[in-house]
C-alpha cells in the first residue's frame, strides 16, 4: 500500500508520496480522494495521473449526480502547459463505499508536457437523496499538490 499524507490545512501542500484529502461528513457521506505522486508521460502530449476515490454514503441513500475532475499544470520554459481530465468520459465515478483506482488521462492544451514537477488539484463531489428523501451534497478538493511527471 502506498503511504499517504492527509492534508487538513485547506491550502494544499507539497506531496512526496501521495496526497489525500477527506471531505467532512455533512449528512450525505464522506469522500476521500488521493492523487498519486507520479504521473506517466506519453508522447509528450498526454500524462496519466493515478487517482483513488472512496465515496461512502449513509444506508438507504441514492446518488443522483457525481463528478470528479483533475487539473494539471507544468512550467515549460517560459510557458505553462495545462490540461484536465476525469476518471470517465462523463466525469462520473463510483460511489458505493468501495475504493476505486483510476488512471486519469490529461492532454496538454498548449505546449507539450516536459516532465518534472507539476501542480495538480482534484475536485470530487456527489449529490443525492437520503433515506428520508432529503437532497444533500458533499464534495472535496485536494488543493494544489506537487507531483512528478516521468
DSSP, total strands: 11
Low-confidence stretches: 1-17
Number of domains: 1
Number of helices: 0
Helix-strand pattern, N to C? EEEEEEEEEEE
Whole-number mean pLDDT: 84
How would you sum up the major sheet? Answer: 11 strands, mixed
Q: Report the portion of residues in β strands.
A: over 45%
Helix content: under 10%
What gyration radius follows from the Cα positions, in whole Å?
Answer: 16 Å
Structural class: mainly beta
Topology:
Layout: E1 5-6, E2 18-22, E3 30-36, E4 38-42, E5 46-56, E6 62-76, E7 79-85, E8 99-107, E9 116-129, E10 135-141, E11 145-149
Parallel strand pairs: 1-2, 4-11
Antiparallel strand pairs: 2-3, 3-5, 4-5, 5-8, 6-7, 6-9, 9-10, 9-11
What are the main properties of this structure?
58% strand, eleven-stranded mixed sheet, mainly beta, 150 residues, elongated
General description of the model:
- The chain is mostly beta strands and 150 residues long.
- It has one domain.
- It has no helices and eleven strands.
- Strands 1, 2, 3, 4, 5, 6, 7, 8, 9, 10 and 11 form an eleven-stranded mixed beta sheet that branches.
- A hairpin with a 3-residue loop joins strand 4 and strand 5.
- It is elongated and about 55 Å long.
- The N terminus is likely disordered.
Amino acid at each position: 500500500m502506498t503511504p499517504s499524507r492527509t492534508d487538513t490545512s485547506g491550502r494544499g501542500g507539497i506531496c512526496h508520496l501521495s496526497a489525500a484529502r477527506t471531505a467532512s461528513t455533512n449528512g450525505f457521506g464522506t469522500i476521500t480522494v488521493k492523487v498519486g505522486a507520479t504521473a506517466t508521460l506519453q508522447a509528450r502530449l498526454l500524462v496519466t495521473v493515478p487517482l483513488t476515490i472512496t465515496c461512502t454514503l449513509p444506508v438507504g441513500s441514492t446518488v443522483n449526480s457525481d463528478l470528479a475532475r483533475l487539473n494539471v499544470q507544468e512550467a515549460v520554459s517560459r510557458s505553462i502547459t495545462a490540461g484536465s481530465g476525469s476518471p470517465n468520459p462523463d466525469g462520473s465515478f463510483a460511489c458505493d463505499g468501495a475504493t476505486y483506482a483510476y488512471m486519469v488521462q490529461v492532454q496538454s492544451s498548449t505546449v507539450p508536457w516536459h516532465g518534472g514537477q507539476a501542480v495538480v488539484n482534484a475536485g470530487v463531489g456527489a449529490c443525492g437523496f437520503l433515506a428520508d428523501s432529503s437532497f444533500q451534497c458533499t464534495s472535496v478538493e485536494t488543493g494544489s499538490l506537487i507531483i512528478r511527471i516521468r
